[in-house]
Amino acid sequence: MPSAIGGFVAQREALYAAGGGVKAVGSKYYAAYFPSGFASSSTRRVMIALHGTGGAPEAEWNDWKSTLDARGWGFLGLKYLDDATGSYEEEPAIYANIKSMYDEVRAACDFGSASMFVVGFSRGSAQSFGTAYLDAKDRRLITAVGNNSGAWLLNGRPTPTLQPIENTNNLTGMSGTRFWMYCGGQDMEQGFPMCDEMAQAETWVKKYGAPWSGSIATPRARTAASRATRTPFPRCSPTSRA
C-alpha cells in the first residue's frame, strides 16, 4: 500500500477515524468512504474524485466530507500520481483503475444501483474529460462529470484520448455524459483566465454531442473551489461483507 505523505497523512488518519479506508489498485490506491446515510438513501449516489496536481484522494475526501455526510453520498477517490517519481497516469490507466475500484467495492458491499459521477479538481478536471469518453465507449458507469477549474490549455488541443473525436469530426463523440463546470474569474494560475479555458472546454463538449448541464463562474475567486488500510473495505451498508 503506498504511504500517504505530508499533510495527507493526517487526512488519511481522519478518513480511518470516520470509518473509511484505502486499498491498493494497480500500483496506486483508492480511498473509499460511505456515510451512515448511504444505505438508507432512496437514490444512491457515489462521487468518484480525481485529485489535482500534487494531490491525493484523502484531500478530496477532506474537502467534500461535510457534503457527503449531508447528502448521504458515497465517495471513491483515486490516486493517480506516483509521489516518488512525480509521474501521473493518463486517462486509459485512470479509467482501468476506476473499473477495478468499482468492481471491487461493488463485490464487497451492498452497493445497489448507485449513480456514479466524477468530480475532477484542476489536473483531475482536465483528465476527467477523456476518462468520461472512455467510459461512454465501454462500461457506461459514469452519468455526469463535475469539472472544477481544469481542461486543456487555451487555444491548444485536448488530450490524446480525445483527439480522435476532432480528427474524425465525430459530432456524437461526447454524447451520453452531462457536464457541470466551475471556474474562478480571477484565477490566472496558468497565465490566462481559467474561465477562458473552461469556456473553451464547454464549447468543445457541446460541439461533440454532450448534453449540456451548466457552468458557474465566480467573478472574484482567484483559485479553484475548495475541495495501510485497517479494514479491507469500508462499510457501505449494514450488509457489507467488510
Describe this structure in words.
With 242 residues, this protein is α/β, with parallel strands linked by helices. It has one domain: Alpha/Beta hydrolase fold, catalytic domain (Rossmann fold, 3-Layer(aba) Sandwich). The chain has helices spanning 8-17, 57-71, 91-108, 123-136, 163-167, 194-207, and strands at residues 21-25, 28-33, 45-50, 74-78, 115-121, 142-148, 178-184, 212-218. The chain has an 8-stranded mixed beta sheet with strand order 1-2-4-3-5-6-7-8, with helices on both faces. 43% of the residues are buried. Residues 226-234 and 237-242 have low confidence and may be disordered.
Oligomeric category: single chain
Which CATH class applies here?
A: Alpha Beta
Number of helices: 6
Strand order of the largest sheet: 1-2-4-3-5-6-7-8
Distance from first to last alpha carbon: 18 Å
What CATH architecture would you give?
A: 3-Layer(aba) Sandwich
Quick structural gist:
With 242 residues, the chain is α/β, with parallel strands linked by helices. It has helices at 8-17, 57-71, 91-108, 123-136, 163-167, 194-207, and strands at 21-25, 28-33, 45-50, 74-78, 115-121, 142-148, 178-184, 212-218. The protein has an eight-stranded mixed β-sheet with strand order 1-2-4-3-5-6-7-8, with helices on both faces.
Layout: helices, strands, pairs:
Blueprint: H1 8-17, E1 21-25, E2 28-33, E3 45-50, H2 57-71, E4 74-78, H3 91-108, E5 115-121, H4 123-136, E6 142-148, H5 163-167, E7 178-184, H6 194-207, E8 212-218
